[in-house]
Write a structure and sequence with these properties.
- The complex is a heterodimer.
- Chain A is built from 9 helices and 10 strands.
- Chain A is α/β, with parallel strands linked by helices.
- In chain A, the strands form 2 sheets. Chain A has a 6-stranded mixed β-sheet with strand order 6-7-8-3-9-10, sandwiched between helices.
- In chain A, helix 3 runs parallel beside helix 5, helix 4 packs across helix 5 and helix 5 runs parallel beside helix 6.
- Chain B has 2 domains: 110 residues, no CATH class; 226 residues, Orthogonal Bundle (MetI-like fold), CATH 1.10.3720.
- The chains are: A alpha/beta, B mainly alpha.
- Chains A and B meet through helix 2, strand 6, helix 3 and helix 5 of A and helix 12 and helix 13 of B.
Chain lengths: 243, 417
């Protein structure tokens, strides 16, 4: 099967500090990958490179057949195909939930307003906040906001979804409602790369686990192997602390 | 032994009536003194009678300062203007000053002012000579614009007010067209109507324009144009392209660093020298451009403040949805940033309106300029006070209206919880 995301020898520096070191990663369509690791290990930076919110300085990143590089001609097209969910939700506070969801389809994909609204309502129903569609983000709870953010990304009908610690800013009782939505999404066949510390979620949906430390991929393994017989000492230590 | 018990709930029945009468007595004394020029305490030595109201009021306020008295209004009063001795003293002094200053103001503005007549000689009273404003009113509104043609200015402003008024009542969709018309068609239509020169309208050169109508014309044009230019400059200053960034910085710092009066003078006097012979740009237009660019520099910095206040996540979210630079800025960033800086924008625009009198340096006379001209008329010498009070009042009304509008806008656009 062809790969939808391919990273080869990707290196990135913030000034002199190297955040990504020789990252190799391949993701096939419909694969779910969970990336974990201590803070500062470069996991967020890695997935932000995949839709070029961060630029890499060395190596190749190919997303859906398009190489990401300096010439940004196609970057908007790539971003429209790669949905992203942020730790801090980043909903647009000046727009209603419905408008948050229809804005990009209307302006970027040039869909007619009516069609965009239909898609938006379909996705809001999917994340179970269709009854909040006309409210503003500030009127919603954290869990509802994050679900709205997922719906907003889904409205672009992306091929890939990136999740950057989607539950880290949530109160404990709201984490489950967001994870439920993500599990549902995974079962629907979406290609997903998730940075998270929710190991229960990882065990349930991930095809592969990736453990990162100090900018390097320390271990990449099938989910079951990863939890039951991790190879590297660093991974064992991390898992013993987090589980 | 306490000779006098501290005011409390136990002695509330005796202290509050005594305290209130003392306070009332002190106010009455000042009031009678201010309005009827009679000293109730004339029997006391002069120094004592001078400070007596303050003393009485102070004691009175002390007696009624009872915490949690159970009397609703007394509690409110104590909490707000009588929380401690110093507070009570300030309250008394403020009220005394207000009472004292009402009679002379009333006299000057109304009671001894002159309203009837049509020359300076008709002003016989000690108060203001409002005849001056009455006689010159037409000039204050229209400047030296010919009387017979003033209907054109009236029509232009009437159209403006009707459209603005109507836009509050029509549907959202129609409103959009109204606003587009106001921004892109009306300014040029209005100017054509006022300047004339075609459609059988007599040409009126801009040097003859003046008075309040010129204040409005200049303010409206400058506001209309300085806003988009300011936004572009603000975006430019944050651009990642060095050329655009440094041009924006240079422009902003140049215009911000020069006094408006200098800019106006250069635009009117020096600028034409650099033009090739035969080219001619109307003085009013040059001045308008100068004011617009000047205020745009300030506007840019206000808007930039708003841009910087937005979290980085908003940019990232917009970009992750596939939006390019312009879509991101116009759909996501600017709507939020501008909403944040409405107070700053209002501030800049108010300053702009109040800066318009400076155009006198190039010989254009809006409201304050016309008043300056009128007060030097030999027949009307000594009318500066009336004139500038009038100008102050008119400017205050305009600016207060703008300020209220900005507050409403802020409330309307608020999407917080």
């Amino acid at each position: 099967m062809g790969k939808i995301i391919e990273l080869k020898k990707v290196n990135k520096w913030f000034d002199k500090f190297q955040v990504l070191k020789d990252i190799d990663l391949e993701v096939a369509p419909q694969e779910k990958i969970v990336i974990c690791g201590p803070s500062g290990s470069g996991k967020s930076t890695l997935i932000r490179c995949i839709n070029r919110l961060e630029e890499h300085q060395d190596g190749n990143i190919v997303v859906d057949g398009t190489e990401l590089s300096e010439s940004t001609k196609n970057i908007e097209k790539i971003r429209a195909e790669v949905g992203m969910v942020f730790q801090q939700f980043n909903l647009f506070p000046h727009l209603s939930i419905l408008d948050n969801c229809t804005l990009a389809p209307i302006w970027v994909k040039k869909l007619p307003k009516k069609q965009a609204e239909e898609i938006a309502m379909k996705n809001l129903t999917r994340v179970q906040i269709d009854d909040q569609a006309l409210k503003f983000p500030g009127q919603l709870s954290g869990g509802q906001q994050q679900r709205a953010a997922i719906a907003r990304a889904l409205c672009m009908e992306p091929k890939i979804m990136l999740f950057d610690e989607p539950t880290s800013a949530l109160d404990p009782e709201m984490i489950k409602e967001v994870l439920d939505v993500m599990v549902d999404l995974a079962k629907g066949g979406m290609t997903m790369i998730v940075v998270t510390h929710e190991m229960g979620f990882a065990k349930e949906v991930a095809d592969y686990m990736i453990f990162m430390d100090e900018g390097k991929i320390v271990e990449r393994a099938k989910t079951k192997e990863f939890f039951e017989s991790p190879k590297s000492e660093r991974t064992k230590l991390f898992l013993s602390q987090i589980l | 032994m306490n000779l006098i018990a501290k005011p409390s709930k136990n002695n509330i029945k005796t202290y509050v009536p005594i305290g209130l009468s003392l306070v009332s007595l002190s106010f009455l004394d000042v009031f009678v003194n201010a309005f009827f020029d009679y000293n109730l305490m004339i029997f006391l030595p002069s120094q004592l009678s001078y400070f007596l109201p303050l003393l009485l009021g102070f004691i009175g306020f002390y007696l009624i300062r009872i915490e949690l008295s159970g009397i609703h209004y007394l509690d409110i009063l104590n909490k707000n203007i009588n929380s401690n001795n110093f507070n009570a003293l300030l309250t008394l002094l403020t009220i005394f000053i207000i009472i004292k200053s009402i009679p002379p103001m009333l006299d000057w503005f109304i009671l001894e002012a002159n309203f009837i007549g049509n020359s300076k000689e008709d002003c016989t009273g000690n108060g203001a000579c409002w005849v001056f404003i009455k006689v010159w009113f037409n000039r204050f509104m229209y400047g030296l614009y010919p009387d017979a043609e003033q209907w054109r200015i009236n029509t232009a402003f009437l159209i403006l007010f009707v459209i603005v008024g109507a836009s509050f009542f029509v549907s959202e969709k129609l409103k959009k067209y109204f606003i587009l018309f106001l921004i892109f068609v009306f300014p040029f239509l209005g100017i054509k109507l006022i300047s004339g020169g075609s459609f059988g309208l007599e040409y009126v050169e801009s040097a003859a324009w003046g008075g309040l109508s010129l204040t409005f014309i200049i303010s409206a044009f400058a506001i209309l144009f300085c806003f988009p230019i300011g936004v572009i400059l603000a975006l430019g200053r944050r651009s990642s392209l060095p050329a655009i960034k440094y041009i924006s910085i240079g422009f902003i710092e140049l215009w911000r660093g020069v006094p408006l009066i200098t800019v106006l003078f250069m635009s009117a006097v020096m600028f034409p020298m650099f033009l090739p012979d035969g080219t001619f740009i109307d003085k009013l237009i040059r001045v308008l451009i100068a004011i617009t660019l000047f205020e745009a520099a300030y506007m840019a910095e206000v808007v930039r403040g708003g841009l910087q206040a937005l979290p980085k996540g908003q940019y990232e979210a917009a970009r992750s949805l596939g939006m390019g630079y312009w879509k991101m800025n116009f759909l996501i960033i600017l709507p939020q940033a501008l909403k944040l800086v409405i107070p700053g924008i209002a501030n800049t625009l108010l300053a702009l309106v109040k800066d318009t009198p400076l155009i006198f340096v190039v010989g254009l006379m809006e409201l304050a300029g016309m008043i300056g001209l009128a007060k030097t008329n030999p027949k009307w010498l000594g009318m500066a006070m009336e004139g500038y009070v009038f100008a102050g009042l008119v400017f205050w009304i305009i600016c207060y209206a703008m300020s209220r509008y900005s507050q409403n806008l802020e409330k309307k656009l608020s999407t917080e919880r």
